[in-house]
Design brief:
There is one protein chain. Strands 1-2-5-6-7-8-9 form a seven-stranded parallel beta sheet. A two-stranded antiparallel ribbon has the order 3-4. The chain has eleven helices and nine strands. Strand 3 and strand 4 form a beta hairpin. Helix content is 40%, strand content 15%.
Protein backbone atom coordinates (compact mmCIF):
# COMPACT_ATOMS: atom_id res chain seq x y z
CA UNK A 1 0.00 0.00 0.00
CA UNK A 2 2.95 2.35 0.61
CA UNK A 3 3.92 2.26 -3.07
CA UNK A 4 0.43 3.17 -4.25
CA UNK A 5 1.36 6.77 -5.14
CA UNK A 6 -0.06 10.12 -4.25
CA UNK A 7 -3.64 9.87 -5.54
CA UNK A 8 -4.99 7.03 -3.40
CA UNK A 9 -6.21 7.73 0.15
CA UNK A 10 -3.67 10.45 0.84
CA UNK A 11 -0.75 8.35 -0.37
CA UNK A 12 2.70 9.85 -0.69
CA UNK A 13 4.27 10.45 -4.09
CA UNK A 14 6.48 7.55 -5.12
CA UNK A 15 9.08 7.35 -7.88
CA UNK A 16 9.86 4.32 -9.98
CA UNK A 17 13.29 4.16 -8.36
CA UNK A 18 11.78 4.08 -4.87
CA UNK A 19 9.36 1.31 -5.81
CA UNK A 20 12.07 -0.77 -7.48
CA UNK A 21 14.39 -0.29 -4.51
CA UNK A 22 11.95 -1.24 -1.75
CA UNK A 23 10.41 -4.21 -3.57
CA UNK A 24 13.78 -5.78 -4.30
CA UNK A 25 15.06 -4.96 -0.81
CA UNK A 26 12.09 -6.88 0.64
CA UNK A 27 12.94 -9.98 -1.37
CA UNK A 28 16.67 -9.62 -0.75
CA UNK A 29 15.96 -9.76 2.99
CA UNK A 30 14.12 -13.07 2.60
CA UNK A 31 10.57 -11.76 3.05
CA UNK A 32 8.37 -14.01 0.95
CA UNK A 33 4.80 -12.66 1.29
CA UNK A 34 3.56 -9.57 -0.55
CA UNK A 35 0.05 -8.17 -0.12
CA UNK A 36 -1.53 -5.64 -2.44
CA UNK A 37 -4.92 -4.76 -3.92
CA UNK A 38 -6.42 -3.88 -7.27
CA UNK A 39 -7.18 -0.37 -6.00
CA UNK A 40 -3.80 0.36 -4.39
CA UNK A 41 -2.86 2.89 -7.04
CA UNK A 42 0.33 1.89 -8.88
CA UNK A 43 1.20 -0.93 -6.50
CA UNK A 44 0.37 -3.86 -8.78
CA UNK A 45 2.00 -2.11 -11.73
CA UNK A 46 5.26 -1.72 -9.78
CA UNK A 47 5.20 -5.34 -8.64
CA UNK A 48 4.94 -6.49 -12.24
CA UNK A 49 7.54 -4.06 -13.48
CA UNK A 50 10.23 -4.66 -10.88
CA UNK A 51 9.90 -8.14 -9.35
CA UNK A 52 7.90 -10.26 -11.79
CA UNK A 53 11.21 -11.86 -12.78
CA UNK A 54 11.55 -13.03 -9.14
CA UNK A 55 8.02 -14.47 -8.94
CA UNK A 56 9.16 -17.82 -7.54
CA UNK A 57 10.61 -16.06 -4.48
CA UNK A 58 7.34 -14.86 -2.97
CA UNK A 59 3.70 -15.62 -2.29
CA UNK A 60 1.41 -12.99 -3.79
CA UNK A 61 -1.90 -11.85 -2.32
CA UNK A 62 -4.20 -9.27 -3.84
CA UNK A 63 -7.84 -8.21 -3.41
CA UNK A 64 -10.91 -8.01 -5.60
CA UNK A 65 -14.20 -6.14 -5.67
CA UNK A 66 -12.24 -2.92 -6.08
CA UNK A 67 -12.65 -0.15 -8.62
CA UNK A 68 -10.83 3.12 -9.23
CA UNK A 69 -12.74 6.13 -10.51
CA UNK A 70 -10.62 8.98 -11.84
CA UNK A 71 -12.57 12.23 -11.81
CA UNK A 72 -9.51 14.33 -12.65
CA UNK A 73 -5.73 13.99 -12.67
CA UNK A 74 -5.45 14.58 -8.93
CA UNK A 75 -8.27 12.49 -7.52
CA UNK A 76 -9.07 8.80 -7.35
CA UNK A 77 -12.10 7.29 -5.69
CA UNK A 78 -12.16 3.61 -4.83
CA UNK A 79 -15.73 2.35 -4.51
CA UNK A 80 -16.28 -1.40 -4.39
CA UNK A 81 -18.61 -3.13 -6.82
CA UNK A 82 -19.65 -6.58 -5.64
CA UNK A 83 -20.49 -8.41 -8.84
CA UNK A 84 -18.97 -11.49 -10.42
CA UNK A 85 -18.02 -9.45 -13.49
CA UNK A 86 -16.13 -6.88 -11.43
CA UNK A 87 -14.36 -9.56 -9.39
CA UNK A 88 -13.11 -11.20 -12.57
CA UNK A 89 -12.24 -7.85 -14.15
CA UNK A 90 -10.04 -7.19 -11.13
CA UNK A 91 -8.46 -10.63 -11.26
CA UNK A 92 -7.57 -10.36 -14.93
CA UNK A 93 -6.30 -6.79 -14.55
CA UNK A 94 -4.18 -7.81 -11.55
CA UNK A 95 -2.65 -10.73 -13.46
CA UNK A 96 -1.81 -8.44 -16.36
CA UNK A 97 -0.38 -5.68 -14.19
CA UNK A 98 1.75 -8.01 -12.08
CA UNK A 99 2.88 -10.06 -15.10
CA UNK A 100 1.97 -13.37 -13.52
CA UNK A 101 -0.37 -16.20 -14.47
CA UNK A 102 -1.61 -16.96 -10.97
CA UNK A 103 -2.45 -15.33 -7.63
CA UNK A 104 -1.56 -17.27 -4.49
CA UNK A 105 -4.29 -15.70 -2.33
CA UNK A 106 -7.28 -13.78 -3.69
CA UNK A 107 -9.08 -11.79 -1.00
CA UNK A 108 -12.50 -10.19 -1.05
CA UNK A 109 -11.85 -6.58 -0.03
CA UNK A 110 -14.00 -6.28 3.09
CA UNK A 111 -17.59 -6.79 1.92
CA UNK A 112 -20.41 -7.12 4.48
CA UNK A 113 -21.86 -10.59 4.98
CA UNK A 114 -25.22 -9.86 3.38
CA UNK A 115 -23.59 -8.61 0.17
CA UNK A 116 -21.22 -11.59 0.01
CA UNK A 117 -24.16 -13.92 0.37
CA UNK A 118 -26.63 -12.18 -1.93
CA UNK A 119 -24.11 -11.69 -4.73
CA UNK A 120 -22.65 -15.22 -4.52
CA UNK A 121 -19.13 -13.87 -4.13
CA UNK A 122 -17.73 -17.10 -2.71
CA UNK A 123 -18.92 -18.93 -5.83
CA UNK A 124 -16.98 -16.42 -7.92
CA UNK A 125 -13.85 -16.99 -5.84
CA UNK A 126 -14.19 -20.75 -6.22
CA UNK A 127 -14.51 -20.29 -9.96
CA UNK A 128 -11.25 -18.34 -9.90
CA UNK A 129 -9.57 -21.36 -8.33
CA UNK A 130 -10.02 -23.24 -11.59
CA UNK A 131 -6.61 -22.22 -12.84
CA UNK A 132 -5.77 -18.65 -11.79
CA UNK A 133 -6.06 -18.54 -7.99
CA UNK A 134 -4.62 -21.00 -5.46
CA UNK A 135 -6.38 -20.01 -2.22
CA UNK A 136 -9.43 -17.88 -1.42
CA UNK A 137 -9.63 -15.38 1.39
CA UNK A 138 -11.33 -12.29 2.75
CA UNK A 139 -10.13 -9.11 4.41
CA UNK A 140 -12.69 -8.54 7.14
CA UNK A 141 -13.51 -7.30 10.63
CA UNK A 142 -16.11 -7.67 13.34
CA UNK A 143 -19.07 -8.11 13.29
CA UNK A 144 -18.72 -10.05 10.02
CA UNK A 145 -15.75 -12.25 10.94
CA UNK A 146 -17.61 -14.78 13.16
CA UNK A 147 -20.13 -15.49 10.39
CA UNK A 148 -17.44 -15.89 7.76
CA UNK A 149 -15.64 -18.23 10.15
CA UNK A 150 -18.77 -20.35 10.49
CA UNK A 151 -19.01 -20.74 6.73
CA UNK A 152 -15.76 -22.70 6.67
CA UNK A 153 -14.95 -21.75 3.08
CA UNK A 154 -11.98 -19.38 3.38
CA UNK A 155 -8.34 -20.48 3.50
CA UNK A 156 -7.15 -17.29 5.22
CA UNK A 157 -8.51 -14.16 6.87
CA UNK A 158 -6.87 -10.74 6.81
CA UNK A 159 -7.61 -9.13 10.18
CA UNK A 160 -6.42 -5.91 11.90
CA UNK A 161 -4.51 -6.41 15.14
CA UNK A 162 -1.96 -4.62 17.28
CA UNK A 163 -1.47 -3.61 20.89
CA UNK A 164 -3.52 -0.52 20.09
CA UNK A 165 -6.25 -2.40 18.20
CA UNK A 166 -7.04 -5.58 20.13
CA UNK A 167 -10.70 -6.16 19.22
CA UNK A 168 -9.91 -9.26 17.15
CA UNK A 169 -7.36 -10.80 19.52
CA UNK A 170 -9.47 -13.81 20.51
CA UNK A 171 -10.97 -14.25 17.05
CA UNK A 172 -7.48 -14.68 15.60
CA UNK A 173 -7.15 -17.74 17.80
CA UNK A 174 -10.59 -19.02 16.76
CA UNK A 175 -9.58 -18.77 13.12
CA UNK A 176 -6.32 -20.62 13.70
CA UNK A 177 -8.14 -23.35 15.63
CA UNK A 178 -10.26 -23.85 12.51
CA UNK A 179 -7.04 -24.27 10.44
CA UNK A 180 -7.55 -20.90 8.75
CA UNK A 181 -4.47 -18.78 8.15
CA UNK A 182 -4.30 -15.34 9.73
CA UNK A 183 -2.78 -12.39 7.87
CA UNK A 184 -2.43 -9.42 10.20
CA UNK A 185 -2.70 -5.85 8.97
CA UNK A 186 -2.06 -2.79 11.12
CA UNK A 187 0.50 -4.71 13.19
CA UNK A 188 2.37 -1.53 14.08
CA UNK A 189 -0.79 0.62 14.26
CA UNK A 190 0.24 2.48 11.08
CA UNK A 191 3.31 3.79 12.85
CA UNK A 192 3.83 6.42 15.49
CA UNK A 193 3.72 9.25 12.97
CA UNK A 194 0.35 8.26 11.54
CA UNK A 195 -1.01 11.79 11.67
CA UNK A 196 -4.40 12.07 10.04
CA UNK A 197 -4.99 8.33 10.20
CA UNK A 198 -6.96 8.36 13.41
CA UNK A 199 -3.96 7.25 15.46
CA UNK A 200 -3.69 10.14 17.88
CA UNK A 201 -6.10 8.74 20.48
CA UNK A 202 -4.51 5.31 20.24
CA UNK A 203 -1.08 6.69 21.02
CA UNK A 204 -2.52 8.53 24.01
CA UNK A 205 -3.72 5.15 25.24
CA UNK A 206 -0.20 3.76 24.71
CA UNK A 207 1.04 6.43 27.10
CA UNK A 208 -1.81 5.96 29.58
CA UNK A 209 -0.94 2.27 29.74
CA UNK A 210 2.70 3.16 30.51
CA UNK A 211 3.92 0.81 27.81
CA UNK A 212 7.10 2.84 27.45
CA UNK A 213 8.18 1.27 30.75
CA UNK A 214 8.09 -2.17 29.09
CA UNK A 215 10.29 -1.28 26.13
CA UNK A 216 13.86 -2.55 26.11
CA UNK A 217 16.64 0.07 26.15
CA UNK A 218 16.86 1.68 22.74
CA UNK A 219 13.72 -0.03 21.46
CA UNK A 220 11.32 2.21 19.52
CA UNK A 221 7.61 2.21 20.12
CA UNK A 222 6.91 0.74 16.71
CA UNK A 223 9.44 -2.05 17.30
CA UNK A 224 7.71 -2.84 20.60
CA UNK A 225 4.33 -2.91 18.83
CA UNK A 226 5.61 -5.22 16.12
CA UNK A 227 7.02 -7.62 18.72
CA UNK A 228 3.72 -7.45 20.65
CA UNK A 229 1.84 -8.48 17.50
CA UNK A 230 4.32 -11.30 16.91
CA UNK A 231 3.74 -12.50 20.46
CA UNK A 232 0.19 -13.62 19.67
CA UNK A 233 0.55 -17.40 19.35
CA UNK A 234 -1.83 -17.65 16.39
CA UNK A 235 -0.52 -14.88 14.16
CA UNK A 236 0.83 -16.43 10.96
CA UNK A 237 2.16 -13.41 9.08
CA UNK A 238 2.12 -9.63 9.41
CA UNK A 239 1.99 -7.16 6.54
CA UNK A 240 3.95 -4.02 7.38
CA UNK A 241 4.09 -1.38 4.69
CA UNK A 242 6.94 1.02 4.13
CA UNK A 243 8.48 2.98 1.30
CA UNK A 244 11.88 3.35 2.93
CA UNK A 245 14.63 0.71 3.19
CA UNK A 246 15.76 2.09 6.57
CA UNK A 247 12.29 1.43 8.02
CA UNK A 248 12.37 -2.06 6.50
CA UNK A 249 15.67 -2.76 8.24
CA UNK A 250 14.30 -1.50 11.56
CA UNK A 251 11.26 -3.78 11.25
CA UNK A 252 13.44 -6.77 10.36
CA UNK A 253 15.67 -6.10 13.38
CA UNK A 254 12.58 -6.09 15.62
CA UNK A 255 11.30 -9.34 14.13
CA UNK A 256 14.69 -11.00 14.58
CA UNK A 257 14.53 -10.19 18.30
CA UNK A 258 11.42 -12.34 18.37
CA UNK A 259 8.23 -12.08 20.42
CA UNK A 260 8.16 -10.27 23.74
CA UNK A 261 9.03 -12.27 26.83
CA UNK A 262 5.81 -13.89 28.01
CA UNK A 263 5.70 -11.94 31.27
CA UNK A 264 6.15 -8.65 29.35
CA UNK A 265 3.43 -9.63 26.85
CA UNK A 266 0.98 -10.50 29.63
CA UNK A 267 1.80 -7.32 31.55
CA UNK A 268 1.30 -5.23 28.42
CA UNK A 269 -2.12 -6.81 27.87
CA UNK A 270 -3.06 -6.21 31.52
CA UNK A 271 -2.10 -2.54 31.26
CA UNK A 272 -3.97 -2.14 27.99
CA UNK A 273 -7.07 -3.77 29.51
CA UNK A 274 -6.94 -1.18 32.30
CA UNK A 275 -7.17 1.71 29.81
CA UNK A 276 -9.96 0.19 27.76
CA UNK A 277 -8.02 -1.42 24.91
CA UNK A 278 -9.16 -5.01 25.16
CA UNK A 279 -10.38 -7.90 22.99
CA UNK A 280 -14.04 -8.22 22.14
CA UNK A 281 -15.32 -11.01 24.33
CA UNK A 282 -16.51 -14.14 22.58
CA UNK A 283 -19.93 -15.17 23.84
Amino acid sequence: MEIRGSRIWGGRPVTDWQAETILNAVLDEGINFIDTANDYGRSEEFIGKYIAHRRQEFYLATKCGCTMVRRDENTDETPHVWTRDNLFRGLNESLQRMKTDYIDIMQLHNPPVDVTEQNHLVDALKEMQQGKVRFISISTTLPHLPIYLQWGVFDTFQIPYSALEREHEDWISRAAEASIGTIIRGGVARGEVGVGLGNEDRWKKFEEASLDELREPGESRTAFLLRFTLSHPNVHTIIVGTLYPEHLRENIAAVKKGPLAMDVYEEAKRRLDSVGIAPVQIG
